[in-house]
Amino acid sequence: MKTLTLPPQAAQVGLAVDVAAFAMHESELQVLLVQRGTLPHAQVWALPGGFVQLHEELHEAALRELREETSISLEPRHLEQFYTFGAPERDPRGRIVSVAHLAVLPHGTVQVTGGSGTLAAGWFPAHTPPPLAFDHAQILERALRRLQTRLEYAQLALEFLPETFTLPELQEVHEAILAKKLDKRNFRKRLLAQGLLILSGERRNGVGRPAQLYRRSKTARRTTV
Amino acid sequence: MKTLTLPPQAAQVGLAVDVAAFAMHESELQVLLVQRGTLPHAQVWALPGGFVQLHEELHEAALRELREETSISLEPRHLEQFYTFGAPERDPRGRIVSVAHLAVLPHGTVQVTGGSGTLAAGWFPAHTPPPLAFDHAQILERALRRLQTRLEYAQLALEFLPETFTLPELQEVHEAILAKKLDKRNFRKRLLAQGLLILSGERRNGVGRPAQLYRRSKTARRTTV
DNA sequence: GCAAAAGTGTTGCGTGTACACCCATGC
DNA sequence: GCATGGGTGTACACGCAACACTTTTGC
């Protein structure tokens, strides 16, 4: 390992990343959790995360921990850092600061198993999670708020869905994230007015009247920050 | 110094805070910079900042560095963490991750001098700063964007002004942050409709017609974290 | 009385919201 | 033919942007 030349006043802190990874399952917004295999908080559920390596970008560390601890195969469709948690006593092992990330996993990310250091991995209702280790309940809460505000501007909801999807499915994603019902007509009007969706022409068979399929237009690029 | 029991895989990184502190001077949005006294980037201007101490909250570290390096006396009226910069090569001394903070200093924070480790401190136009050390130009840019989005919702602009102020003064703050002119009538209508301002009755003498003085209503709370 | 800055209203447009019925399909 | 979910339009409220003249003071 390379030796560093940090100034003497640099406190020795551990730098970690934690990831709140969301996906839609059964019309509900779910969050990916792992069951810790080691102390502290052994057997307690927690957000996947771990220590950043020396020459690793923060978002790379987040991706790596997500893969290592949950054995997911699909790449997240969205990944952003959203807050850094650094209260001195947040981790009993010492001073550990965590850069928290928000991830969106695409539809179909169902199978998860425990990975290195974890007993298990699984999906849980994002708005009503089980008891969580460390300050992860706070982290999750803030992740949800960020997800909600992101939804207003961007086309982030599309990242939860497969290539083609129906408008009722898209509305379900919005309703799951915002935790409230939306008006069908207003929702359609608003979404179609944005010009991000193009009609895919085909139809999908279900129980009632078949829904029209859409896909995201290639020009879905507007990240007006 | 207390010995920590960090897990072996915890990379040894330095944890720093940097502060983009803004104030209004001469109808312009200004940012507080310090001239570095040590390598690397000696004599180059930079955002005030430094290493977090072991048992210190992140925002406390930000406040401490601000005071130590710039000798300001007034407390910031707003302080929030807004992004964490962690590119592996952002600091030539080694892996140093910086939790960047946004601060608003009240009107009257004029005198600043260099402090420990800095040659000088001074105010610079926030939208057109001098060359900056490390990745501080990026940090400042993101701080400005955050300031602009904060302005929409909150009463953050009030933090730039003294106890009592006039509507033209408040409009100047908004215009300086957004870097664009606003319509006087629309601005007044919008701000007064929010109910955050109460008429202070007095008047202030100037060149033309005197302006009415306002103060913030009691329900407008401070936003320092 | 004139220069300089403060103050004041109306209109149009776009956006969001409330709200109820018909349509296409499987069984 | 009926149960199931998909699809459609209008009317009102609200917020935002555009726009020009009068008022109060100092000199």
Throw out a few tags for this protein.
alpha+beta; 24% helix; 2 domains; homodimer; elongated; three-stranded antiparallel β-sheet; DNA-binding; seven-stranded mixed β-sheet; Nucleoside Triphosphate Pyrophosphohydrolase; 225 residues; 4 helices; Arc Repressor Mutant, subunit A
Explain the overall architecture:
The structure is a homodimer of 225-residue chains. Chain A is an alpha+beta fold and 225 residues long. Chain A folds into two domains: 14-152, Alpha-Beta Complex (Nucleoside Triphosphate Pyrophosphohydrolase); 156-216, Winged helix-like DNA-binding domain superfamily/Winged helix DNA-binding domain (Arc Repressor Mutant, subunit A), CATH 1.10.10.10. Helix content of chain A is 24%, strand content 30%. In chain A, strands 1, 2, 3, 4, 5, 6 and 7 form a seven-stranded mixed sheet that branches. In chain A, a hairpin with a 2-residue loop joins β1 (14-25) and β2. The interface between A and B is medium-sized, with 34 and 34 residues.
